[in-house]
User: Which sequence fits this backbone?
């Protein structure tokens, strides 16, 4: 090869080497950074999960929720068509898979909790299968109550075109579906998993329902972003709420928080109540049956049944040439 | 093999069998649960989609939206670089793929609707191709109006560093992009799909715009979480709104909801209006051009043009040693 | 092959051809639509990124954030178990990968910015490695401050069952984790990337924290949907805020927006302040240490330390048989 043709190659090589050399200098400093990172791990001020049991996986929880939804609304979210001939086979297969995946995550959750309290986990495997089966057995009941929620969406929203539209696309119905599943597992005393489930729905919908809340049938949440329903809330049948509604706790001084961890500190909403957007009901008042709570209202005390609570029309200040 | 070496294997086998036996007992109870689940399917109280046409797929809708966005903002969301030499080829290929994917989901949506009304679907295939093409033909117009929206983001937000930052990362611009596409399909009378699209954007951004709303050019939504824009809302040009703004319907008694399904029940916002965070405008008042609606205001009546509407400064209660 | 067997094939072929012919007619119109789309690309009214450098990828940014979170909370989000034997090896490998992925996206961001100002990018590669390393070096500090945020979540929420529950599932902690990383890169003057990061967290949580905000240790956001924290906000230590809280800018006339781009236009929140749900603090007032801001309050002026600010109980209008 003639000498003059080698030059570009050499130049290129030289450039690359100097680049590599410079880059390598940065790489060489990584071990020191990692060493410092490991040093901080040993302090009490950080959190790690080293030398520990494996933990529930967010991906698996998401798979479980979508698998369960395919069973609860058969045919709506399946890539393949369902017909009455293959229905039992497919539903059986899907339910078995759900049992397996759910039992596995329940096992990891229980083992994690045992480890946290330094307790042996002798019955963990059996308990997780037991829980998985109990959950499967609630599916028929869940289907029925989700049927009432679906009809409530259609009945409560003038923009709803069909039940199918609600099932396909309403975030409120998705959040309620996930909450109802998480509530079952919460009732079966499964740690961690129920909250991971409702926070998944929170992330997808902006609707934050604690798994511990008790909610009756025909529940409808319209739009939903910003809704918060606290741990000890109780909601009756045929209740309708809108975006931004908070059913929350009253403020607590920092030193009293531990004392309130297991008390009822959220509202009770009786049957047929409607709560409009951005209303906040705080503490544990009772909102009586058939009452209507207007938008932006801030309530901390009981409301009798059959009552409308509205903000007094605020005095508005108009500035401009055309004051009314 | 000597007999004493077989023992451990047998023990292991025995252990595994006993474990399996316990586990199998749970598995054995699954068919009964599935049987009960199938039994409830036959009640009127549940929803299923069995013996039905295949349905639109949420994954496909998401793919369509991202594919269309790559076409509407060429080069911004593509893994490969675009240059003027390969642009026509790549855009042509991307547009053809969009046509195919969209036509397919339109077909599924129309077939689903035909089935719901027990109507034959003889022209479904042709209609879906027709719709796919009409949509493709609106892309140049969509590019232009989205250009005005992009400039509105830069002009309306002091934190915006560049148009590119808005295109890359502003949730308001993403929600408006999806809404404008869904609105085209809504105008072409496609069932189901437009709402699935805007609910996808709602899930990603917390911004809930009904595909039926009419929105002019240079529209800017800042932050956006909690925004609700109802089905029959009309918004003029150069309007700016902030997080938590509701353009919604007034409350309806349960027995009147059906009567209102096709009436105008949401506000009209004229040109150059600004609406600050968490304001609610309900029913169908007209907010006159160039008016400014302050934060947290709750309005149900007309506002003349060139008007500022502010809450009277609320009387605050200060508790503490340092009252002002 | 006997003649009568060919017929079905021919019929099928005929059907397919006629279908194809109709379909092909639609395909034939696509090039015209693409041509029109290309024509609009040349107008000033649209945005494209053609003949440009490659750009940061949203997928890569998401990978970087999750990789960094696995390092900051070792063992919590890993599919494989960590033990003290493999910890250094795994952490070293994960950190090296993070350095590589982050440096790459920083490079793309810097190149994009250079191109925008038509400036040469001679030190881009070195600068991006430098930035990647500086970021890695902040990881120990980030672990420590995130430890204080994790304890603040447990201490501030009566519904919290354990630190692990907060780490696994609290959206507020996720948003703060992402913000703290983005704030480091913002401090290193990386363009584009920090905002893409916080908008990713915004999309997942409904919590919108600008990377430029300054936030002290032990910060807790409960529920979080709708929270907005603006670019020039300053927050002290041990501050607690709830869903829907806005720390935002006051309204600006359109012609003054550019003038305000680099001024402090957001609030200062001193140590130990609590701000309840849907409160808005706008402009740049100072909220004094240990003060409590009640829900739905709208503040634009300074609040002295040790002060409670509450809305005067609104006059409610009760309608019904059972007025209290």
Assistant:
């Amino acid at each position: 090869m003639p000498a003059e043709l080698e030059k570009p190659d050499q130049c290129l090589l030289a450039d690359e080497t100097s680049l590599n050399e410079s880059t390598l200098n940065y790489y060489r400093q990584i071990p020191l950074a990692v060493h410092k990172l490991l040093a901080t791990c040993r302090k009490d001020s950080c959190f790690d999960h080293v030398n520990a049991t494996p933990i529930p996986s967010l991906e698996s929880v998401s798979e479980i929720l979508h698998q369960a939804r395919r069973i609860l609304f058969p045919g709506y979210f399946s890539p393949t068509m369902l017909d009455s001939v293959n229905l039992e086979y497919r539903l059986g297969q899907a339910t078995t898979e759900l049992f397996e995946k759910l039992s596995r995550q329940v096992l990891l959750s229980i083992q994690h909790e045992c480890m946290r309290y330094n307790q042996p986990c002798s019955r963990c495997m059996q308990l997780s299968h037991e829980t998985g089966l109990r959950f499967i057995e609630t599916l028929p009941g869940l289907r029925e109550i989700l049927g009432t929620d679906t009809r409530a969406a259609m009945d409560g929203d003038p923009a709803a075109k069909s039940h199918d539209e609600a099932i396909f696309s309403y975030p409120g119905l998705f959040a309620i579906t996930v909450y109802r599943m998480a509530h079952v597992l919460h009732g079966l005393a499964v740690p961690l998993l129920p909250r991971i489930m409702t926070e998944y729905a929170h992330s997808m919908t902006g609707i934050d329902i604690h798994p511990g809340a008790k909610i009756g049938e025909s529940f409808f949440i319209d739009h939903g972003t910003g809704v918060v329903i606290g741990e000890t809330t109780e909601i009756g049948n045929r209740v309708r709420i809108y975006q931004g509604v908070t059913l929350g706790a009253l403020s607590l001084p920092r030193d009293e928080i531990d004392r309130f961890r297991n008390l009822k500190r959220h509202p009770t909403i009786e049957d047929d109540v409607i709560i409009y957007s951005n209303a906040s009901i705080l503490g544990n008042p009772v909102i009586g049956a058939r009452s209507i709570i207007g938008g932006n209202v801030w309530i901390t005390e009981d409301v009798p049944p059959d009552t409308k609570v509205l903000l007094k029309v605020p005095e508005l200040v108009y500035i401009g040439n055309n004051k009314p």
Q: What stands out?
A: The first helix of chain A runs from residue 3 to 41. Helices of chain A lie at 3-41, 58-72, 87-116, 124-156, 163-169, 171-187, 193-205. Residues 1-17 of chain A have pLDDT under 50 and may be disordered. Chain A has two domains: 54-207, 226-324.
